[in-house]
Amino acid sequence: MEKKEIKLNHFNIYAVIAVIALIYFSIKCIQFYFEMEVPKEI
Q1: How far apart are CA 42 and CA 27, in angstroms?
Q2: Of 26, 29, 21, which Cα lies nearest the Cα of 37?
Q3: Is 7 exposed, middle or buried (0-12, 13-18, 19+ CB in 10 A)?
Q4: Gap between the Cα atoms of 2 and 8, Å rounded
């Protein structure tokens, strides 16, 4: 039982890290897109 709990905890940690990484990457892409597009329109 302890081994299964440890594996689940590690999986949850990796899942949270993956979600945070995806959100961080998407935010960086959005910021870069607006920085490139807004000056061209103005």
Answers
A1: 22
A2: 29
A3: exposed
A4: 10
Q: Go through the chain and tell me how many residues it has.
A: 42
Locate all alpha helices (DSSP H) within 1-42, ordered by sequence.
2-41
Convert the pLDDT of each residue in 5-40 to its tens digit. Answer: 767 778 889 999 999 999 999 999 999 988 888 766
In the structure encoding, which two tokens stand for residue 39, read together? 């000056």
CA distance 7 to 14: 11
Calpha distance 16→14 (Å, rounded): 5
With tokens 């961080």, the residue in question is 24
First to last CA, the chain: 61
